[in-house]
Design a protein that fits this description.
The protein is α+β, with helices and mostly antiparallel strands. Helix 2 crosses helix 3, helix 3 packs across helix 4 and helix 3 packs parallel to helix 6. The protein has a four-stranded antiparallel β-sheet with strand order 1-2-4-3, covered by helices on one side. The protein has two domains: 41 residues, no CATH class; 124 residues, H-NOX domain, CATH 3.90.1520. The protein has seven helices and four strands. Strand 1 and strand 2 form a beta hairpin. The N and C termini lie far apart (45 Å). The protein is globular, with a radius of gyration of 17 Å. The chain is 54% helix and 16% strand.
Length: 171
């Protein structure tokens, strides 16, 4: 993304967000901030691709800090399946709006049903994809589709690694 620019700062302030004074945001402002920063960081990409990039960058930035490094060390020890299944409980404690249901599809895939992606499914896909990468999942994949009920289904999967195949046969 490069350096923070005056243009980005002006665009965010025009949407009532001052990065020098972070505060609690209404959902609509937060979504606008995501879109503004994504467009600034990836000006030639589609909105969905720019939001995907921003979700990945957010996780990478989180992993640069002590808390993120510690968390992803634990998640790597849990493995991608257990970590992805745990996401539903994490969202339940993170905010009072998002509801996630997780279900395993065998040992190498988990489906996550979000009650809403708030119009930024690309951002969520980026967060999930980069999370799988940070967990050292082999060949991660994340796709999403909107269901008629309004639920957004994120299908995550990864390949079996030689180490996990060996561990499975030893159990």
């Amino acid at each position: 993304m490069g350096c923070w620019s005056l243009d980005l700062d002006k665009a965010l302030k025009a949407r009532d967000f001052d990065a020098s004074r972070p505060s609690e945001l209404k959902v609509g402002v937060w979504l606008d901030v995501l879109r503004i920063v994504a467009k600034h960081g990836q000006p030639n990409a589609s909105e969905e691709d720019a939001l995907d990039w921003l979700g990945r960058e957010m996780v990478r930035g989180y992993c640069d800090g002590l808390v993120g490094k510690s968390l992803f060390l634990l998640l790597r020890m849990m493995g991608p399946k257990r970590a992805m299944l745990r996401i539903a409980a994490n969202y339940a404690t993170a905010d009072g709006v998002t509801r996630v249901t997780a279900s395993a599809r065998g040992d190498l895939a988990v489906d996550l049903e979000f009650n809403s992606a708030f119009g930024v499914p690309g951002f969520i896909r980026g967060v999930l994809f980069e999370s799988l990468i940070q967990m050292n999942a082999s060949q991660p994949s994340v796709s999403f589709s909107s269901l008629p009920s309004g639920v957004v289904l994120f299908s995550t999967s990864w390949a079996q690694t030689p180490a996990s195949a060996t561990q499975k046969t030893q159990r």
